[in-house]
Design a protein that fits this description.
Layout lengths: L11 E4 L7 H14 L8 E6 L5 H14 L3 E7 L2 H10 L4 E5 L8 E7 L8 H12 L15 E3 L3 H10 L12 E5 L8 H8 L3 E5 L18 H9 L4 E5 L6 E4 L5 E2 L1 H14 L7 E5 L4 H9 L3 E5 L3 H11 L3 E3 L5 E3 L8 H15 L3 H4 L8 E7 L6 H5 L2 H14 L3 E7 L5 E8 L2 H19 L1
Parallel strand pairs: 2-3, 2-4, 3-6, 7-8, 7-9, 12-13
Antiparallel strand pairs: 1-5, 4-5, 9-10, 10-11, 14-15, 16-18, 17-18
Length: about 450
């Protein structure tokens, strides 16, 4: 089977101004993707958004030039959450949507995510077709000078997205009387997220709303939630929520500052939607990383947990194939199929807040619906150029993995996988005995590290 070289599990990603995240590659990507989505005689349009990284100023004009050179009109919307691009692509009847972001990564990385006209991320097959065209003489797809595209800015994109997200909140409910801490990670949602919750009645304590091009995800956001937790306790807030750099994921803490992950959120929403007869598909879609406790909890409600590979795009694909309307990841990607085509941190937060309002109880009681099974994840970092698959194929490593699988059989799970975005092999295990989980993960990670040295 042919594999993609440029695209990973979530678009193209890398260190800014270094291969593959250069202006030259962005230009070729714009040309190739624009050509692949030029279908029919109408004027074709692409919507381009970005987060707050300094390198957005490098990638955005390069992509724009690529699209314009193949005759595609460009609509530039500036900083906006990734799900906002998915929404605008459909709303504007655009042929393609592009988000320039490396999500939860530090400022020196950047990425390019592509959405089709239906608002969904592109399939592996289409990404491979774009790569094939980029590897060929891409200059052959340039149009005549009279057919060049045009570029313009859409000034009300943020307002459109705010109104779209507010419309997903249950009718008749308000957030009056709630104090919430909103950490925007100095990222794409720094203006929009606080506005959504404030306009629905909440008292908002803002964190991570002063981007400077360098501080995205730095000491804030869903990957560094300690500031949010401290603010919740010091401000006596009812709830804290932390978005990542492009606001397609969200994590929470309760009024005591204790974390609530994506698995708990899936459990909360599944319970709410089941009670309201809104849940479709007879269950929830999550990834192989989701906790065994979630699977057991859903089972107690008569619901199934369908697991996929890691990556919200694979969750979405399974949701579409199986008729599910709720899915997500432990990391905080929550996909609400009735409202959005991709993970949306703000919309997910509104569903969680709706559950909190309707329960009338503290977040610590409402939003922690199951006891998590002890789970440990350890990353084994590889040297540049090391083939993760080759390491995992070594006889000693395969034997060690088989031994752990036999040890956990019937009482837990082992998951070994290579990262799609970093040179890592991830080792995860879970079982009811925390000491056993710790022992098998540490031992296996050490074996893999020695084999890869």
């Amino acid at each position: 089977m042919t594999t993609r070289k440029l695209f990973g599990t979530d678009g193209v990603r890398g260190r800014a101004n270094a291969d593959p995240m250069t202006a030259e590659i962005a230009l070729r990507l714009g040309m190739a993707a624009g050509h692949c989505f030029t279908r029919g005689a109408h004027r074709h349009t692409v919507v381009i958004g970005k987060d707050t990284r300094l390198s957005g100023y490098l990638i955005e004009p390069a992509l724009t030039a690529g699209f314009v050179s193949v005759g595609m009109d460009v609509v530039l919307v500036g900083p906006i959450p990734t799900p906002g691009i998915a929404m605008l692509t459909r709303s504007l009847r655009a042929d393609l949507g592009v988000m320039i972001s490396a999500s939860h990564n530090p400022y020196h990385d950047n990425g390019i995510k592509l959405f089709g006209p239906d608002g969904y991320k592109l399939s592996d097959a289409i990404e491979m077709e774009i790569e094939r065209l980029m590897d060929s003489d891409v200059s052959a797809v340039r149009v005549d000078s009279a057919k060049l595209g045009r570029a313009k800015r859409l000034d009300d994109a943020g307002g459109r997205y705010i109104e779209f997200t507010k419309a997903t909140f249950p009718r008749g409910l308000r957030l009056d009387g709630l104090k919430i801490v909103v950490d925007c990670a100095n990222g794409a949602a720094y203006k929009m997220a606080p506005a959504v919750f404030w306009e629905l009645g909440a008292q908002v304590v803002k964190v991570g709303v002063d981007p400077d091009g360098f501080n995205i995800n730095h000491g804030c956001g869903s990957t560094a939630p300690d500031k949010m937790r401290e603010m919740v306790v010091s401000h006596h807030a009812h709830l804290g929520l932390a978005l990542d750099g492009d606001a397609d994921r969200v994590l929470f803490c309760d009024q005591r500052g204790e974390m609530i992950d994506g698995d708990q959120v899936l459990g909360v929403i599944a319970r709410q939607w089941r009670q309201g007869k809104l849940l479709q598909g007879g269950g929830v879609v999550a990834t192989v990383m989701s906790n065994l406790g979630l699977e057991r909890y859903l089972g107690s409600l008569g619901l199934a947990l369908k697991r996929t590979n890691v990556g919200d795009r694979y969750v979405v694909e399974e949701m579409k194939a199986g008729g599910y309307n709720l899915g997500g990841e432990q990391s905080g990607h929550i996909i609400l199929g009735d409202h959005a085509t991709t993970g949306d941190g703000i919309i997910a937060a509104l569903q969680v807040l709706a559950a909190l309002v309707q329960s009338g109880k503290p977040a610590s009681e409402t939003l922690r619906v199951f006891s998590a099974v002890p789970q440990k994840l350890k990353n084994v970092r590889l040297k540049d150029g090391t083939d993760a698959a080759a390491v995992l194929g070594l006889a000693g490593v395969k034997t060690a993995i088989a031994d752990v699988e036999k040890r956990l059989a019937g009482k837990g799970r082992l998951l070994i996988r290579k990262s799609g975005t970093e040179p890592l092999i991830r080792v995860m295990a879970e079982a009811d005995d925390a000491r056993e989980v710790d022992a098998v993960v540490s031992s296996l990670a050490e074996t893999i590290a020695k084999a890869a040295a």
